[in-house]
C-alpha cells in the first residue's frame, strides 16, 4: 500500500482523491470547482479520445467545432432545455476590463446587449447552424461530433467525476425520419457499451432512463451504467433521441422527396473526462492506478537492473533490443534507466501510475536468458525466454485486459440482486450491497420520494435480460419489467 493513499476499506472517497493526486492525474485549480488535468491523467484521456474518435468515424461521423459562447436567447428557445440547465450556467455580461487610476483595480466595461452563456451543452448553437446547412433530404443525415470543453457550475465537486469545467465529446445528428434518428441514438449507445467493455474493461448495463432522469429536451435518453468498487453506480455515457424539439425551436426544416417541408429529427450523445474517474474506481487499488492495457500509453514499464558500469552496457543492450521488438509489435514501452533512484523506487512509481506490465532485466537474468514480467493488477510474476519475450508479452497483455473485465463483471453480477419489497429495498440500499433490480411503475414524484428516503436513484431500464411482469415495489401497480436502482456518483 502506498504510504500517502488512504486504504479503500477505510474511506473510499478519500482513497479516490488520494490516488488521483498521488498518481499525478489531476489537481485542484485556483479557480473554485475546476481541475487541472496533469500529463498522466491527460494521457489516459488521449487514449480514450483516440479509440472513440476512430469508432465514431467508422460509423460515418465527422468532427467539427462550435463556439464556446452561446447567446442567452438561444437557450430560451427550447423550454425544457433552459429549465434543465439554467441554474448551472456561467454567464458573460461584459466585453472587457479597464484599470481605474483611483483604486488601481480592474472594473467591468462594455456591457453586452445580450448575455452570453459558456456552453453547458451545444444543442442550441449547433441547431442554429443546422438551419443554414439543411435544406433538402439530400443533406441528411448530418452526422457531426465535436471534442470540446463544457461549463456547468457544480455545488459539490470531485476530480474528474464532477467539476465546473470538463472535457467531453458531443455528437449532434439530424435525420429525415423518427426511426432513423432513434436508430442512431441506439447505435451510439452500443458504441459506448462496446468501448466501455472492450477498452475500459468495465462492464455496463445499458438501457433507457426514466422520465425523471431524461436529458432536458429529449424524448428518450439511453445510458450505460457501471458499478464501481464501492458498489455505487456511475453513469458513464448517454445518448438522446431528441425528436423534433430542437428542429422546431430553431425552425430547421427540409424538403422531402415529395417536395414537402418537414422538421428534421435529432439526436445528441456524449461522454466526458468522467470516464477517467470511472476507470480509476473500477480497477485501481491501494497502491495506485490500474490502467487496462488498451488504454495505456505505455503498457510496458521497463526497468534495467545493474550495479557496475560493465553490467549496465550488457543489460541495456539486451533491454533496448527487447524494447525494439515490442515496438515492432505495436507495444509502447516506458524505459526507466535513471541511475539516481533504486529499482524499488522505480517499481513503486510504476505501480502508482498504473503501467499494466513491468519488465525487469539484470545480469542474473542475462545468464538465464530470461526477462522477469510482473502483472500490475495481481502482481503475478512470469519468467520469459528473451528470444520469445516480445510475442509472449503481447499475449500476456491481452490476458490482463480480459482479467480486469472478468473481475469487474463478477463484481457487477454478484452485487446485483432482485428485490421484491420496499422494506427489503431500504435494507439492501442502507447496507450498500449494490444494484437493486426492482419492479417499478412509479412516476417522477415517486422517484424523488425513494431518493429522499434511501439516497438511491432510478439508474436504468435495462434493454437486455428477461422481462417479467410484477408489482411495483413502492406503489403496487403493475410493472412490465425490473429496473435498476442504486446509490450513485
Question: What's the SSE blueprint?
Answer:
Elements: H1 12-22, E1 26-28, E2 35-37, H2 39-58, E3 62-63, E4 69-71, H3 72-75, H4 79-85, E5 90-100, E6 105-118, H5 123-133, E7 142-151, E8 165-175, H6 178-198, E9 204-208, E10 220-227, E11 233-243, H7 245-249, E12 253-255, E13 261-263, E14 265-272, H8 274-283, E15 300-304, H9 309-328, E16 333-335, H10 343-353, E17 357-361, H11 363-368, E18 370-375, E19 381-385, H12 389-414, E20 416-419, H13 422-430, E21 435-439, H14 444-454, E22 457-462, E23 470-471, E24 478-479, E25 482-486
Parallel strand pairs: 3-7, 15-16, 15-17, 20-21
Antiparallel strand pairs: 1-2, 4-6, 5-6, 7-8, 8-14, 9-10, 9-22, 10-11, 11-14, 12-13, 17-18, 18-19, 21-25, 22-25, 23-24
List keywords for this structure.
25 strands, five-stranded mixed sheet, Translation Initiation Factor IF3, Rossmann fold, single chain
CATH superfamily membership of the largest domain: Bira Bifunctional Protein, Domain 2
Would you tell me which CATH topology of the largest domain applies? BirA Bifunctional Protein, domain 2
Q: Which word captures the global form?
A: globular
The first-level CATH class name of the largest domain: Alpha Beta
Strand content: 25-35%
Number of helices: 14
Identify low-pLDDT runs. none
Count of beta strands: 25
Q: What is the topology, as strand order, of the major beta sheet?
A: 3-7-8-14-11-10-9-22-25-21-20
Class per helix and strand makeup: alpha+beta
Instruction: Kindly report how far apart the N and C termini lie.
Output: 25 Å
Query: What CATH architecture label of the largest domain applies?
Result: 2-Layer Sandwich
Helix content estimate: 25-40%
Mean pLDDT: 96
- Domain tally: 3
Amino acid at each position: 500500500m502506498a504510504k500517502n493513499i488512504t486504504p479503500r476499506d477505510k474511506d473510499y472517497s478519500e482513497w479516490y482523491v488520494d490516488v488521483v493526486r498521488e498518481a499525478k492525474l489531476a489537481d485542484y485549480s485556483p479557480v473554485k470547482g475546476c481541475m487541472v488535468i496533469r500529463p498522466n491523467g491527460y494521457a489516459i484521456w488521449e487514449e480514450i479520445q483516440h479509440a472513440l474518435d476512430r469508432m465514431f468515424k467508422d460509423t460515418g461521423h465527422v468532427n467539427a467545432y462550435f463556439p464556446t459562447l452561446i447567446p442567452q436567447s438561444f437557450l430560451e428557445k427550447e423550454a425544457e432545455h433552459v429549465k434543465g440547465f439554467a441554474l448551472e450556467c456561467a454567464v458573460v455580461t461584459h466585453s472587457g476590463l479597464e484599470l481605474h487610476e483611483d483604486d488601481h483595480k480592474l472594473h467591468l466595461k462594455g456591457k453586452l446587449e445580450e448575455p452570453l452563456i459558456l456552453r453547458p451543452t451545444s444543442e442550441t448553437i449547433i441547431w442554429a447552424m443546422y438551419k443554414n446547412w439543411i435544406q433538402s433530404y439530400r443533406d441528411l443525415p448530418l452526422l457531426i461530433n465535436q471534442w470540446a470543453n463544457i461549463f456547468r457550475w457544480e455545488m459539490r465537486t470531485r476530480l474528474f467525476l464532477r467539476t465546473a469545467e470538463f472535457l467531453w465529446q458531443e455528437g449532434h445528428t439530424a435525420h429525415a425520419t423518427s426511426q432513423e434518428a432513434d436508430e442512431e441514438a441506439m447505435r451510439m449507445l452500443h458504441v459506448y457499451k462496446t468501448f466501455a467493455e472492450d477498452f475500459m474493461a468495465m462492464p455496463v448495463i445499458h438501457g433507457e432512463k426514466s422520465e425523471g432522469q431524461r436529458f432536458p429536451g429529449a424524448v428518450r435518453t439511453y445510458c450505460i451504467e457501471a458499478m464501481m468498487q464501492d458498489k455505487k453506480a456511475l453513469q458513464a455515457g448517454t445518448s438522446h433521441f431528441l425528436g423534433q424539439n430542437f428542429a422546431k425551436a430553431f425552425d430547421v426544416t427540409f424538403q422531402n422527396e415529395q417536395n414537402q417541408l418537414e422538421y428534421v429529427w435529432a439526436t445528441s450523445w456524449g461522454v466526458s473526462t468522467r470516464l477517467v474517474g470511472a476507470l480509476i474506481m473500477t480497477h485501481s487499488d491501494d497502491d495506485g492506478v490500474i490502467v487496462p492495457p488498451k488504454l495505456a500509453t505505455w503498457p510496458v514499464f521497463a526497468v534495467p537492473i545493474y550495479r557496475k558500469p560493465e553490467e549496465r552496457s550488457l543489460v541495456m543492450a539486451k533491454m533496448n533490443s527487447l524494447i525494439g521488438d515490442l515496438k515492432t509489435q505495436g507495444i509502447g514501452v516506458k524505459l526507466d534507466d535513471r541511475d539516481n533512484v533504486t529499482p524499488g523506487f522505480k517499481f513503486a512509481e510504476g505501480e502508482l501510475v498504473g503501467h499494466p506490465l513491468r519488465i525487469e532485466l539484470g545480469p542474473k537474468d542475462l545468464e538465464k536468458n530470461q526477462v522477469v514480467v510482473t502483472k500490475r493488477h495481481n502482481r503475478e510474476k512470469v519468467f520469459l525466454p528473451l528470444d520469445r519475450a516480445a510475442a509472449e508479452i503481447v499475449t500476456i497483455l491481452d490476458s490482463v485486459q480480459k482479467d480486469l473485465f472478468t473481475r469487474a463483471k463478477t463484481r457487477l453480477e454478484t452485487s446485483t440482486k432482485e428485490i421484491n419489497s420496499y422494506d427489503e429495498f431500504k435494507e439492501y440500499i442502507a447496507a450498500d450491497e449494490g444494484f437493486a433490480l426492482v419492479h417499478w411503475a412509479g412516476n417522477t414524484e415517486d422517484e424523488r420520494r425513494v431518493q429522499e428516503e434511501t439516497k438511491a436513484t432510478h439508474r436504468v431500464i435495462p434493454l437486455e435480460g428477461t422481462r417479467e411482469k410484477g408489482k411495483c415495489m413502492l406503489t403496487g401497480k403493475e410493472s412490465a419489467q425490473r429496473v435498476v436502482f442504486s446509490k450513485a456518483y
